[in-house]
Amino acid sequence: MTSDTSIDIAIIGGGIIGICAATYLAEAGRSVTVFDRTGICEETSSGNAAAFAFSDVLPLAHKGMIRQLPKWLADPLGPLAVPPAYLPSLLPWLIRFWRAGAAKHYEASVAAQAGMMKLAEAEWMGLLDRSGTRPMLREDGSLELYESEAEFRASLPGWAERERFGIGFRHVEGEEMASLQPGLSPRFVKGTFVPGWKTVADPKLLGKAVWAYAEKLGARFEHARIERIEAGTNGATIMLADGTTRKAKQLVVTAGAWSHLLAKNLGDRIPLETERGYNTTLPISAFDVKRQLIFSGHGFVITPLETGLRVGGAVELGGIERPPNFRRSKAMLEKAKRFLPGLDPSGGREWMGFRPSLPDSLPVIGAARAPGVFYAFGHGHLGLTQAAATGRLIRDLVLGQNPPLDLTPFRPQRF
């Protein structure tokens, strides 16, 4: 059975990337329909750490993770975990990740990420203003914390790189550190304060508010599970789980961790893996956290939201089929109690989401092999941060305009 609805532009995926793409296209006067199986910003985009991480220009592959890998993998509840049964499936991706971290790729990777971040900040500030969501922005900065001089010294090369791209920060200790976050455990000997770091009041609420703006411009939503896509010279065909189909002149795939499965329908093989992230959102009264606290040695953050205190992060490379392992959320909460001795850990909501990640830590943004189809996925833990930039770039690609960024590092065919 086929729907007789003629769609101008279809977007598969109602997360923050999909709705930003829809918003930019709707602003350009195009008719857009977003398809999602659950709703707008109801899955991975609802439970992230709420950061606009514009200063996070170092790709994961170059953050020394390979050196840490053996130690982290030995701890099933540590910053990075791989369920042993999943390791054989993951191995090809890990090899690509290791290769992407080679010194010869460093300059190009950092330059691509820094360019994307500069565009992301400019586009988000504009979109917040146009959509009336600027009051949801928080500009309190972030505080990264170190438990030893050795850990602090190990962080310095990364800060030197950020300085190269004009990112402001200052190292703090003693009374200054305590004033930035009262009640810290004395185990933390130094910190780095990034005054330009931004967060949002609640990522799910921000996403829904941006979508409300897109709807006023004519964007539509259809609740549907997509089984398969096909594309040819006359446009794209979208096959739904209920047996119906939709036709679209142009198609944008922004389905997060499931995107590569749809891309495979069109002959594009993209090595996407899933960073499963965990968190617990506590009541606001749990602790008076002044700004996002970053515990990079433990792979998690604590973010004050208007809807609660979110303790989360860490990475579990385990695909999209395995059930959640909420012991990981509990392990982070136990650490949070030690790091903030007055924290009340009761009354929390546990959550797990799928971050779609590519081995070189750069998203796929560009045209598919099939005509009239575009991809925007694989942003890892930077989906919220880079969503407005991605929306702008997709708009330019769909409209045949020159994008403000060289998209060569992000092309889908790079693998």
Quick structural summary:
By secondary structure, this protein is an alpha/beta fold. The chain has helices at residues 16-27, 65-73, 87-100, 106-130, 149-164, 174-180, 203-216, 259-265, 327-339, 383-399; strands at residues 2-12, 32-36, 51-52, 80-81, 137-138, 142-146, 170-172, 190-194, 198-200, 220-223, 226-232, 235-240, 245-253, 273-282, 292-295, 300-305, 308-317, 349-357, 364-367, 373-377.
Give me the secondary-structure category.
Answer: alpha/beta
**Counted beta strands:** 20
Largest sheet: 9 strands, mixed
Give the terminus-to-terminus CA distance. Answer: 37 Å
Number of helices: 10
Enzyme class: oxidoreductase
InterPro entries: FAD-dep_OxRdtase, FAD/NAD-bd_sf
EC number: 1.4.99.-
Protein name: D-amino-acid dehydrogenase
